[in-house]
């Protein structure tokens, strides 16, 4: 496949570590990088102040998370896009990878130790259902 590398982020330090590895892989492969963050609910609030109205939703803060990580990863010659996807993290990352025709998904291994091994983790779910290669970065347990 020749599509982008998709990396899931949630604002955590471990996800940022996985994103750095995804950037390095994208540079090495000459592939674009797509940073995605998931939101499970779509709570929307309308705020009125005088004649001004603001609409604030979970998607807004999720996009802001992905945008910040994308900005942190900026590298000359690397095309980076970002976005938010609705759904549980693994489902959202997989759907985004399918939508973009991704060549690879990169996730961290958080949740794959201890009881998380039995209850499931984002990395485990992605690895079992991804439409492309999956790279699981050792972000915890080092």
From TrEMBL:
Domain annotation UspA: ranges: 1-138
SUPFAM superfamilies: Adenine nucleotide alpha hydrolases-like
Coiled coil: none
Family recorded in the similarity comment: Belongs to the universal stress protein A family.
Name of the protein in question: Universal stress protein
InterPro entries documented for this protein: Rossmann-like_a/b/a_fold, Universal_stress_UspA, UspA
Endpoints of the signal sequence: none
């Amino acid at each position: 496949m020749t599509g982008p590398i998709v990396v899931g982020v949630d604002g955590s330090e471990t996800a940022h570590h996985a994103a750095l590895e995804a950037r390095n892989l994208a540079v090495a492969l000459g592939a674009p990088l797509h940073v995605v963050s998931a939101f499970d609910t779509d709570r929307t609030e309308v705020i009125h102040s005088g004649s001004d109205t603001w609409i604030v939703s979970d998607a807004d803060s999720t996009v802001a998370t992905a945008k910040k990580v994308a900005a942190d990863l900026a590298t000359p010659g690397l095309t980076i896009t970002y976005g938010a996807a609705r759904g549980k993290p693994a489902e959202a990352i997989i759907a985004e990878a399918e939508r973009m025709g991704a060549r690879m998904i990169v996730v961290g291994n958080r949740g794959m130790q201890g009881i998380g091994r039995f209850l499931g983790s984002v990395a485990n779910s992605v690895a079992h259902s991804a439409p492309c290669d999956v790279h699981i970065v050792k972000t915890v347990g080092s």
